[in-house]
Structure formats: structure tokens, C-alpha cells
Fold this protein.
Amino acid sequence: MVFNTDEVKRENSDCDLLIPLFDIHAGIQIDNYWNVYNGDVLAERLAHYLNRIVEIAVRHNAKDAFVVMSELLSGLIHPLLRLENNQDLVDQFLMVTDYIGQFLMELSAHFENVQVYVAPGNHSRMTPKKDENIEHENFDNLVIPFLQAKLQNYKNITCYTNNVEQGIAMFNVRDTRVCAVHGDKDSLNSVADNMRRMFKFLPDVILTGHRHTNALKTDYDVKIVQSGCLSGSDQYCVDKRLKNRPEQALCVISETEGLDCIYDIKF
């Protein structure tokens, strides 16, 4: 993986970046009319994303990066994926964690601090059938300890585990309270109320994915940001007549405004 970036120093910053890496689906091989995706394309998209992140960070004079990962593996949750995958689960995990490790190393040169979180997705569960899966047996839950070991010499990168509920990442970006979920257990209409009932407070921003499109919804004054899919449309999506360009929703969060703007990053 080759990144074309230069180290940048920024001072007197009043904002940070909230960076989703949602629905990566590493290990799948896609070649249809609308989309081509494999390990090499994943590396190219991460490089493109990094370049856009650095460009936006310079434009806004952003200080810290908050990276949320979700659904890193293609997995085996339905039979069609078995046919489209060109790697087993272990190889998927090793490839994507290597790529993300390099991505975070490069990112650390452009921000004062990089904080890393995960919101486990349904593709990464260890058994195909949802009702036979133990809730926390999910490859996404292995990513944080793996990266902690891999990046231990990068003192400005901190990887956090989810201490309250493994499926929900909770953290503050300056004074903005953020909850991140994958999205398979919540809809855009219900997620704010679900967070309120579970935790007895409303976050300022909820980051979600799963539905493969960038979107923004406001509910109870909560900004619900839905990030798209890095891998793009596979055969399962095409068969259901669902097609969308690969994209991610990168957020700028400021000291005074909270969620200040969203960048529609397309690949």
C-alpha cells in the first residue's frame, strides 16, 4: 500500500475529524457492471481516503482524528458470500488489519492524536446463522487488541475497547458525545430512542452504517450520521436491486458547533 501524503503540523485548532471505516468487507471479490473490488482495490481506496482526510484536516485545521471501524470482514453470513470470497476468515482478518494498521500509522503523522474504536458488524460474526452465534464471538472484537499490539510504538495512537456494551462505541469528540453502532440492530428511526432508553441520555451524534449509503437524519436533536460501504455493491446487493457507489461520511466536529459539516467521500 502506497500513500502519497506529507507530514503536516497544525496549531490553535478548534475541531477534530470523525472518520468512519464502515462495511469494508475485506476478502470479497466483486466484478460486476457497477463495481470492481478485491484486496488491491481496497488498498487503493484506503490510500484515496487518507489523501482526502489529510486535505480536509488541513482545510479545517483539525487537531485529532477519531476513527471508527465496523464490519471489517466479508464473512460467511449467507451462501453467496462463500462463492464471492477469495479468502477464508483468517486471511481476511490478517489482510484487513495489516492495511488498517498502515492506514493508522500514516494518519498518525497528520494529527496530534489518533483514537481508534470499533462497532462490530454482522458480517464479522463467526457462525453463519445469527441465532446460533454467541453475541461477542465476532472477528471485529479481535481488531482492537490486535492493533494495540501492532501499533504499540506509535505513542499518539490509542485503541479503545467498548467497556459498556461491546456492540456500541461511546466517546467524546471535544464536548460532543458520540455513540457508534454498526446499524444491523437499529434503524435510523429508532436508534436515538434506543440509546436514550439504554443509557438514560441522548448522545449528540450517532454514527451508524450497514445500509451502504451516506445519509443524515435528525431525531430528538441528535444528528444521526449513516456512513456508506467501502466495498460497494456485491452480487447480493445487485440481486436485491440495490446499487450505490462506495462512499464514507467523514465528519468535522468543532468546539462550538458540534457536528459542523459532513464530507461525502466517494470512491
Summary: The first strand starts at residue 15 and ends at 22. Residues 15-266 form a domain with the Purple Acid Phosphatase; chain A, domain 2 fold (CATH 3.60.21.10). DSSP finds six helices and 13 strands in the chain. The two ends are 16 Å apart (CA to CA).
